[in-house]
Design brief:
Layout: H1 10-16, H2 26-29, E1 42-46, H3 48-51, H4 60-64, H5 67-75, E2 97-98, E3 101-102, E4 110-114, E5 120-124, E6 144-146, H6 173-176, H7 186-191, E7 197-201, H8 205-212, H9 237-252, E8 257-261, H10 270-273, E9 280-282, H11 284-307, H12 312-319, E10 329-331, E11 334-336, E12 347-349, E13 355-356, H13 362-366, H14 376-386, H15 393-402, E14 411-412, H16 414-437, E15 441-443, H17 445-453, E16 457-459, E17 462-464, H18 483-501
Length: 523
Amino acid sequence: MKNYIKYLPFLALGIISCEPELDKPVDEIGFYTNGETDFSNYVALGNSLTAGYADGALYLTGQENSYPNIMAQQFAKVQETQMFTQPLVLDNAGGLLIGGTQIPGFTNRRVLAVGADGNPSPQIYTGMQPTTDITNVLSGPFGNMGVPGAKSFHLITPNYGDISRVPVGTANPYFVRFASSPSTTILADAVAQNPTFFSVFIGNNDILSYATSGGVGVDQTGNLNPATYGPNDITDPQVFASAYSTIVSQMVGTGADGVLVNLPDVTSIPYFTTIPNNALVLDAATAANLTGFFRAVAGIFAQGAIRNGLDPAVAQGLAAQYAITFNAGPNRFLIDIPVSQTNPLGFRQMTAEELLVLTINRGALAQGYGSVMLSPAVMQVLGILQTGGTPTAEQAQLVLGAVSGIDDKDALDKSELLAISTAQASYNATIKALAQANGLAFVDAKAVLAQVANGGVAYDGGNLTSTFVTGGAFSLDGVHPTPRGYALVANTIIDAINSTYNSTVPKVNIGSYGTITLNNDVQ
């Protein structure tokens, strides 16, 4: 759809410049153009990132600062538009109710508050109870069709808004609130609005749930039936490509122009970068003791393997991997891996690229989780070894059992990171190809997040980074942006739209948007 609005001739421009109203800021007098497109009826498709989800919940202020709402406000400065509507929740608490009872797993938002240890940290907000009940279905249509938790194929899945399916996990309570009927699809409700312009930012959840679970799922490459997926499974790239192609073709089929946003690297967000895997900081004496402990582990393993008939040279070779050396200062944690012929004890030290999740129990790390959980009985066995004695088989097992590697749910290892990056690369190739094939604007969100994570993005008054709590870009769940972060997303998309459609939609000052919320600032 092309809707050309011409610039004023330069002569007329010079005459008008004498008029006093030009003393006002440009965005107040509408001196912008929509170029070769039409923003009058904008519809946004996506997941939690589109809905304005932040701090672990969907709440009113977050929705008001969603990037589609920010963009819609800017579109209104270039041409007359329909009112952009969102399925707003009723409060700033977050959480959802069904028949007056809070739905398990849909908790209140997080705020920065003083914890039991006296230090400020993200805490679940308890200052008010949630009031948004999904049995109270809203009347649409809604321009913001972002549904938290939705994966790519969910946008074309019938009955995704059927409240009767919520208890069994096959429907989404957020979509229940504003679906036009229980059997409809998200895409069908979007198409029915006959948009003139649309955005699609979907696919993060096709990987994210696998990543945030520490890879506790199954890489579903080769499985083309989403109905058999577990909640943490990576969506097969062929399934993603098919669903995404359907979304784009139906939206373009309405005659609308649009913009497609690729997927940022999910492992660059604070959820995975806040706790370094070399945070095992030791003094010289403790480092020496741990080194001695793992020499004992190696010796015990070798002796046991030889007694069980393994060739001594082979046994010593396998044992050598457990004689881990620790140094004064930062050391990498140990991680559990599947037991195999090459690693019979099933643990090793983490490598530089491997990641810990934000939700790991930091108190447990301080008590030996990720290294060794010593007990008086284990210390007794170590004393036997130090004096040249030979422990019993039961005593030897106590020593081996004291090794406490990081659980799979708390880390992403090399194989899991490879599964994530492989899927993401395929998804992004699909998105870019469809943007090019349909003449749509394309946003490289992956590059933008990489900039935020590596030095930050400067704005008038500061620098936006991905540092947890203080960086300004990410909310207290470590996954979703703050209002300021969403403003950056909006500006990035606006840049791509202006470049593709020769429009001059104004960007916003991201510094005028907020970041994290203190407990006593919630209203």
